[in-house]
Design goal:
By secondary structure, the chain is α+β, with helices and mostly antiparallel strands. 25% of the residues lie in helices and 23% in strands. The chain has nine helices and 17 strands. The structure holds succinic acid (SIN) and cobalt (II) ion.
Length: 374
């Protein structure tokens, strides 16, 4: 029998993927029963004030929205008077182990699709206004209550000149109040508006879909370091031409032949995509250990306790290749299942037996701050 998940309101993963994923919204009451949230408002505001936080403050006064980006100081979150406000912090899974654990509930969706966990806090009335995202998102309610209004309307025109993307003519089709543990799945481009009913925290588990334009441009960047094109322009049979400024058809034919030598195969596509999807966002930096232990000590720890991925690491795999934080590595075939397990679970239990090559690679990743002994 297929597993019915509380998280999906009693649907199996297969039913959810078939009927809802990328297709239509789904409200799930008590998706995570007794979910109390992972941090309180004060902790979220403190996180918003940390150096590398990706945080936004949205205020709303007389129907007009205002937007500010991090860096913030604690004093920024006071003195709003009658204005409604909300703080949103991206990438909370890069800071909190509990957040990374929460994301594991969603690993029925490939890791390469996951963007991050965003957490918002708003006192009564706060929100970011009616909008749509190009993301699939699970909106999981933590503390407090949020009223969600949604619309599948085709009209996606936005208010001009607003600092946020606000739908000009939002026509509410359905509306619910969510409480702790309730969850709403929205496919990309589904209009939504979340209004805090009281002190409200919402956990958004977002899944990215790169635009083809972005993929193609980045693939060309990847390719430029790898292409090998033989020969150089030659014209031993050059003929006279009436206009010296004219680029002749013969000239262009030669250029075309040269460019046609640019080739790629499936391995290039896989390599590019693995590196690209595991590439850290520009604001992410890894903390290499200040005083790294020796390889011998590291190997002992590996044997006894295993290793864990750093919260900021993204590790993917495909057909014998491992991709970690934008780098590709091809392990010996007997090590591949071990690294795939590390990528799946974000940790690897005590490792009794592995090749020297793997031990050394893991040690290098430890020194880069990508993994650490468990
Ligand atoms: C929020 O948590 O307030 C906003 C989430 C969203 O609308 O995407
Ligand atoms: Co949204």
């Amino acid at each position: 029998m297929k597993n019915q998940l509380t998280l999906l309101g009693g649907l199996t993963v297969q039913e959810f993927l078939r009927d809802y994923w990328q297709k239509k919204p789904l409200l799930i009451r008590q998706a995570i029963p007794a979910f109390e949230g992972l941090l309180d408002p004060q902790q979220l505001l403190a996180l918003a004030c940390t150096e590398d936080a990706q945080a936004r403050l949205v205020t709303q006064s007389r129907g007009k929205f205002d937007l500010r980006h991090a860096p913030f100081e604690p004093g920024d979150f006071a003195g709003f008077g009658k204005a409604k406000w909300t703080v949103l912090v991206q990438g909370v899974n890069h800071h909190l182990p509990e957040a990374a654990a929460l994301l594991k509930h969603f690993s029925f969706i490939p890791h390469a699709r996951l963007d991050d966990l965003m957490v918002s806090y708003a006192p009564k009335g706060g929100g970011v206004g009616p909008h749509f995202d190009s993301y699939d998102v699970f909106l999981l309610q933590g503390a407090g209550h949020r009223r969600w209004q949604i619309s599948t309307q085709a009209d996606r025109s936005l208010v001009e000149g607003a600092p946020l993307r606000i739908l000009k003519d939002f026509r509410v089709e359905q509306e619910w109040v969510l409480e702790a543990g309730d969850m709403l799945y929205l496919p990309p481009h589904c209009g939504h508006n979340g209004i805090a009913e009281d002190d409200c925290m919402t956990y958004s588990i977002g899944f990215r879909t790169p635009a083809y334009q972005e993929l193609a441009e980045q693939f060309l960047v990847y390719l430029q370091d790898r292409i090998e094109v033989e020969g150089m322009y030659a014209d031993p049979d050059l003929e006279t031409q009436k206009h010296p400024s004219e680029i002749s058809a013969a000239m262009l034919r030669q250029v075309e032949q040269a460019i046609k030598q640019v080739r790629w195969d499936r391995e290039d596509i896989a390599n590019f995509y693995g590196c690209y999807m595991s590439e850290p966002k520009p604001h992410i930096f890894f903390d290499a250990p200040e005083r790294p232990v020796s390889l011998a000590k590291f190997s002992q720890a590996l044997q006894k306790r295993g290793v864990q991925l750093d919260l900021k690491s993204q590790m993917l795999c495909h057909a014998g290749w491992i991709f970690i934080n934008g780098e590709a590595f091809r392990p010996e075939s007997r090590d591949y299942p071990l690294l795939r397990a590390l990528a799946d679970e974000r940790n690897l239990p005590a490792l009794a037996d592995c090749t020297d090559e793997l031990r050394e690679q893991l040690y290098q990743w430890y020194r880069d701050g990508y993994i650490y002994p468990a």
